[in-house]
Amino acid sequence: MSMRPTALDPAPTNCLIGSLYIALEAASKEAAKLNPCCLMTNRNILPRQIFRRTPPASFECILPIILTDKLDNDMTQRAEAIADLSWEIRRLTLVFLAKPEKTSRHVTDAMRERLRNAQRRLIDKKTYYRDLVHACYQVAKVANEQISMGHTSSGQFLSGICLLFGGEATVKANVKSVTSNGGRCSHAALATALRLYELQANSNSNSSPSSPTPIHISFYARASDGLDGPTAFGAGAWSTDELIEDSAEADRAKQCLMSCDSYGYFANGSKIDADKGHYLPARLTGTNVMDLFMCLIGIYE
């Protein structure tokens, strides 16, 4: 039997057909399709006009803003930065809600510095300060207009800012823990909720303007492949600024984070209101792009 050399297949060529940022842009566009009055962003630059739909009673406005596709390094630090940034956005929006005559020119140096510092901690050197200030002004303006028209009902969502992040940060596991049962996304959701509780506990009547219109913060974190880490039994988790209600719950959250048992906290259904936070059931998606994070700073009647 003669041995003949066979032709080898050419070496494979790697072609870039997508990126994390493209995935985030796609998420923003899909959100706008679901809600026709959403404002589209064009590479982080907000348009200066709001497109409305009728009837006014069904009006909603969500501004999706892509901040980064490189959410990496320590997840606890990143989650705390997300909470701080959303809290500063909330504070600035309250200023515009309480006094509609104010514009971006009325933003004080202290407000500006707090917002910029929170953003730098999250996305390093890149800053979109003017876009964020304009977003706060726009959603407050829309909410005030809807309230003045008298077409709202108690608890109705009026408008809000949705921050979009992508990436894969890390969680340092405690090797001594025997109850580790969590992943990056559930860890981020719980750490964000804990930081929001601390911010509310440390705030006082002089730190934020009074407004009868409430603003709530919701945080959503999901692994794109549907499984949040090798030890997790879920795909991620979501939380709100109302998830942790007292110091006892805050202590339990800290303990769960220290032992890398974030899912242990969310799985304790007897102590958690499902409307304020829960884990997301695991379901393989057949793809793996990144972890996706969304933070909604919403204005309600």
Automatic annotation (TrEMBL):
Residues 161-291 form the MOFRL domain. GO terms for molecular function: glycerate kinase activity. GO terms for cellular component: cytoplasm. PANTHER family: GLYCERATE KINASE. This is MOFRL domain-containing protein. It comes from Rodentolepis nana.
